[in-house]
Structures are given as structure tokens and as C-alpha cells.
Amino acid sequence: MAGPDPLKVTGLMTEPSLTSLYQQLILEHYRNPRNKSVLEDSTVEAHVSNPVCGDQIRVMARMDGDTIQDVRFEGQGCSISQASVSMMTAIVKGSTRSEALELADRFSEMMRGSDEAAADRSMGDLRALQGVSKFPVRIKCALLAFDALREVVGESRSAPPNGNRSGGGGRALRQPKAAH
Amino acid sequence: MSDTSNDLDWAAVRGLFPILSEEIGGKPLVYLDNAATSQKPRSVIDALTNYYEHTNANVHRGIHELSRRSTVAYEDARARLARFIGASGPEELIWTRGTTEAINLVAGSWALDNLREGDEILISSMEHHSNIIPWQLVARRTGAKLKYIEMDDEGRLVVEDLPKLLSSRTRLVAISHISNALGTINPVHEIVEQAKAAGATVLVDGAQAAPHRKVDVQELGCDFYAFSGHKMCGPTGVGGLWGRKELLESMPPYHGGGEMISIVGRDESTWAELPHKFEAGTPNIAGAVGIAAAADFLDELGFDRIEEHGRDIVSYAVERLNAIDDIRVFGPNDASERSGVVSFLMGDAHPHDISTILDSEGIAIRAGHHCAQLVMQHFGVSATARASFYLYNSREDVDRLAEGLELVQGIFGTA
């Protein structure tokens, strides 16, 4: 954390890590999220929340066999959680289940501080979130989207179209955990 | 000092709190999360250390000298806190883990014993979850109905609605003295008066009031008053429930165990006298000693001065924050109706982002729903940023906060 930092954010000298946290790309996704709408013909969805801070994300996907044909989300929360889910949806559209799970694992590695994961081009815009790894209390914000993704492409097969079946990959709607 | 609002040297008072000289990331700490918990003065820390070094033993049971000393310390602390809140005697003061347990004690003992289907419990939409959930649980188990006093646009209770909310069915009114999320000081006298006239029992949640103003339970006229030590310069894990003696005597025990019995038989037992009937198990003896030291500390400063200083800081904070572009400050506009708390939103910067950026400047605030989701729903927001002040905060701290918020604007811009 020590030492002067040559970077400036909109003219203000800031802490190095603060600069790395609030990348313009993150704020851009926060303000203009990709794929933020209801997916009417979704086959699976997951609703995750962080009861401590109130962040909420609902990810809806239409699976075609093993492929994520379309994915959308709804949500509210901090810039990190909402930018993360926006970036994630942009990348996983068209991916297979295993590719999506690989991405989730890769992202977790980056949150644990892996420079190698952060240099992985397949992570796309998500690499802008690398700075979050230096803010332990905010890592959960960035991971929330991937909790939803893991649930949507869960190991087992997808739920039926009007899926009210529990089990399978994702559920019709998981209620947010009770807040305290 | 420029912000001296009375004859006390507040900079010297601040110096009595060791933690306030901490640096966070190389910057001096500005602690503005006092509605969550307060910091502790040297005298409280010393009282805890002294207790463990010279007094520690279990209470009420040993014949040996240390047990005598700890029992005296523990019961002296009770008498001290009973005086602190204006109880008519120490037996009216039950030690609890804090406000939450105090409210749950009333819910689990008095309410479950007294409420029936068709009865009503009146609370408000301003309450902390700890003054909502226990009553939801009681309502579910007894069939009683939960009703709410609503808030206006400034986060003040609409007391004009009381006459139509209260009836002979209203058995309990449970209301916060001061809102943790907004800082609103509620007209408790007026509410108690009307509730009592309707025949209701009244509980006041004093978690945010006991640190900031002189509490006199007799003068308030309520039946129960709940408070926490850690928000008033005392240790965590200790607080109190004050109750009218005749009410407490009529109530069944809350927890069963040692300490709370008189004679134990195989099928039936008899209970200890007040206050021990409600204190099963080895209590938080050091905590009681610590909260008594906190009461001494606050009384020595004097609540007149603490209140005056608090008003100065909070009205200055509201003024400084309102001068910032794109900021929305929640709660009463009239500073005399607000105590120690400024909840706000700024542009499209989420409260967690505001909090992270302020933290990088050494400024500690709270972001989230503040365990008051009904307040958030009332204002149609999911979270707010909350700066909360206490006696060691200064106008300089408010200036640092305002500067920190400029940094937030530098990063987030104005949306």
C-alpha cells in the first residue's frame, strides 16, 4: 500500500489499490450493464444474494443441450457485484457448461490473487476486476455472479422449461437467504 | 478548539480513547460507525483489566474472598446502572447480553404468557430488526396481530395516527427511543402516554438513546427499557433490561439453569427472587463491571454537555453533506429531532463503494440496510451510507468525511 502512485483517477491522486479497484471499465459496466433484462424463455435461473449487504442477482439462462444459448440478469447492488455479473454474462453467452465452470474457477483464482489468471485473455473484461482481490471484504461482491453461474450450469441436467423441479442445474427461483 | 460547544475540552476527551490514535493505511482514523458500536475509554479498559487481575471469581456462590469481591463488584455495577437509568431499585435491572436479548426476554417471558389471539402488538416501520422479529415470533405463536406506526417523508413517526392504531386490543407497544438508521428522536413521552391510556404495556428500545442522552425510565413512564453497553462506551456482550418490579415479578423465567432457582425438585422448582430469576448461568461479570465504569465516565462528562456537543456535530454534518452535489440525506430536517446519525446516498455510487473509498482515507462508516430493512423499503432504497457520531467526534472529523466524499465524486463523477 505504501509509495507514491503515478496513476490519477479523474485528476485526483488516490491510493494505488483504490485506483486499481475502480477501473473505468467497471464503472462503465455498472452504468451500462450488458444483458440486463428478463429472459422470458429461460430454462434455468438462479437467485443469489448477500444478506449482509443486500446485493441481489438473478441470472436467467436458456440452455440448448449443453450450451448456454442466451443469458440475462437482473440485480441490484454495488458497482463490483453488478459489473461482475454484466461482464460474466457477456462472456458465457454461447459457452458450454464446462467452459462456464472453467471461467468461474479461473475467476476464483484471480480473486485469490493469481496473476496468471488475471492475464488470461479468455477472461475478457472480467480482468478489470483483478484489483478486487486486494480488498478482502469486497471479494464476495465480485464472486456473487459466479455463485449464480455455478447454480445455473450446475453439474446435473437442466430443469424443464417451466421448471419448478428442484435439483437439476439451477432452480425455478431460489429465494434470497433471510437477512439478519 | 473551534468546535467547542461547551466548557469541556473535547480534544482531551478524545485523547481518553486509545483506539482513536490508530492509523488506517497510514491515515489517522476517523471513526464514524458509532451507531454500530462505540469505542472504549481508558477507564473502561482499565476496569476490565483490573477486574480480571484482582477480583475474578464466580458470583453468589463461593464463600472465599474473591467470590465475595466479585459478587460485590457485580451487584454494585447493577446498582450503578439502575441509578444511571432512573430505576427505583437494583432489582428492576436485569443483566442481558444487550438490547436484543433484553427485548427477546420480554417477548419470550411476558408476551408469550400474556398475549392471546386477537390481541395486537404495535411497533413501527422504523424499528431495528431486533424490535421486529421477536414480535413476529410472538405473533406467530400466540395468534396476536402485528401493527405498525408509519413514518413520514422525513423519517419521523406519524404519531397523529396513534388514536386509530391504539385500542383495547393493543396489549403491547414496542418502540425505539432513537432510530439507528435515521437518527430520528421519537416523541416517546407522547407515545407512552397514549399507549398507557389505551391500557397497553410499553417497551422502549433504548439502544441508540442511552449513549446520547439522560434516560429516566420513571419519567418516560414506560414499562420496559432495553439498552446495550457497547454503544455507550462499555464492553460488548452486556446490556440491560429495566422493567417495573410488579411486572417482572409476575413474569416466568426466561432461561432455566443455575443462579435463577431457589429450591430444585425432581418435577418442580421454585425461582430465585428478582433480579436473579432472569439470570440463569454464570453472568458476564466483567461486562457488568465495565458498563458501570462506562456509566461513571458518561455521568462525569455530563449528559447535558454530551447532548449539546452531539447536536453541534450532527447539525454541522447535515449542513456539510447537504452542500455536496447530488447527495440525498435521510431523516429529519430539523437538527433538534436528530441524534448522532446521518444516512445518505450520493449520485449512483453504491453505499458499499462509498464505504470502501472512505475506508481508504481512514474513515469508517457503515453501508447497508442497518438491520432496518423496513426503513429502506419506506424510502425505496436497498441500502444507505451511514455516518454516526459520538462524543469524541469533532467538526474536523466531519470535514474529513466531506473531503472523502469529494474523492468518491472524483471516482464516480456526478451521474
Descriptive notes:
The complex is a heterodimer of chains A (180) and B (415). By secondary structure, chain A is α+β, with helices and mostly antiparallel strands. Chain A has 6 helices and 5 strands, in the order E-E-H-H-E-E-E-H-H-H-H. In chain A, a hairpin with a 4-residue loop joins strand 3 (44-50) and strand 4. The longest helix of chain A is centred in the middle third of the chain and has 15 residues, at 97-111. Chain B is α/β, with parallel strands linked by helices and 415 residues long. Chain B has 2 domains: 10-31 and 302-412, Aspartate Aminotransferase, domain 1; 45-299, Type I PLP-dependent aspartate aminotransferase-like (Major domain) (Aspartate Aminotransferase, domain 2), CATH 3.40.640. In chain B, 39% of the residues lie in helices and 17% in strands. Chain B has 14 helices and 17 strands. The two termini of chain B are 38 Å apart. Classes of the chains: A alpha+beta (180), B alpha/beta (415).
State the low-pLDDT regions of chain B, or none: none
Q: Tell me the domain tally of chain B.
A: 2
Low-confidence stretches of chain A: 1-14, 155-180
Mean pLDDT of chain B: 96
CATH-wise, what's the superfamily of the largest domain in chain B? Type I PLP-dependent aspartate aminotransferase-like (Major domain)
Distance between the termini of chain A: 34 Å
